[in-house]
Amino acid sequence: MSESLQQLAGLRDQAVAAINRASDASSLEAARVRYLGRKSQITAILRGIAALPPPQRGPVGKVANQTRRELEQLLGERERDLAAAELEAEIAAGAVDVTLPGTPPAPVGHLHLLTRTRREIEDVFIGLGYRVLEGPEIEHDFYNFTALNHPPNHPARMLQDTFYIDPASLAAAVTLYDSEGAPLPDSSAAGDRDVLLRTHTSPMQVRGMEAQRPPLFMIVPGAVYRRDSDATHTPMFHQIEGLAVAPGISLADLKGTLLAFARAIFGADRELRIRPHYFPFTEPSVEVDVSCFACSGGGGLAGGDRCSLCKGTGWLEILGAGMVDPNVFGFVAAAGYDPAEVQGFAFGMGIERIAMLKHGVPDLRLFYDNDVRFLEQF
Ligand code: DAH
User: Fold this and answer.
1) Residue 171 belongs to a domain
2) N- or C-end of the chain: fewer Cβ atoms within 10 A?
């Protein structure tokens, strides 16, 4: 066999091996260039045929062309196989199993029942034309007690078990007042009972009137603090204060306003009852009951059982209220509150109490335990 035929046989074997080894389009292209390209040895052999001795030209030319065609065909097949395999891999990688269950969206939380109750109550009063104000939780004795007609040694001051704040712990820029409302030069002049955590939202009655001349229609939601702790008392809880002052405001306006409130929160069929009571800053003072929504005010249930919500009385106590005492107006006379010209009513309710009644929550502390099994129910 001629040298060229031997060389062609060797090249063919190498090329077949290289083509089979190629694992992707680029290594296959490299094999094509190497064995069939312009600078390849097979091309060189074909070009050199004319220079061979005449008897070798026919056989070498035939084998060289056969080899080239064979390799071209092999390359084509391998190229198709690789492309198909690549497509397979791509499809497998991007596969979506539409029969799998979807990824459930992460549950979004919702507002705490107390926040929702506060907003519901705010909405009712906003609808009646009231403004919503907020005030400080650290308060002067003067606003919490004195200006609300509890003079310094008034026994009602003792009703509130109060958390007191060390005046020296406050920033120097804070102006302190003594219990009569006189500004003090610095904290060393303050008594240890002059600053406290407000025991109710009522101090904002005075602050609200100081800030705005009559007529005034405002509510004040916020946290209040008392040294109490049991199933119906927590050291921190929330109230909503209300105050309406204008010429000619009467107890009838108080009752009509609170009836609208009670019906919005507890149902359109509710009735209201007011009972005489005592608060230092209102005269007369009342406690307000709403007819029980569980037994429709009858006190009994369909099967003859006593209604457990109202304990058979047919009424639920919801808040304290009254006509603003003229003495309170005396503390804000400079802002235009003359009891000969304006009258007002005030009320205060516990947000927790409203939520407990409305939703049948048996223990106040559940609101603060942060147990989602409880919170998720509302
Ligand atoms: N401040 C009273 C309390 O915390 C509640 C209250 C009663 C507020 C009568 C009022 C009111 O505005 O008129 O017990």
Assistant:
1) no
2) N
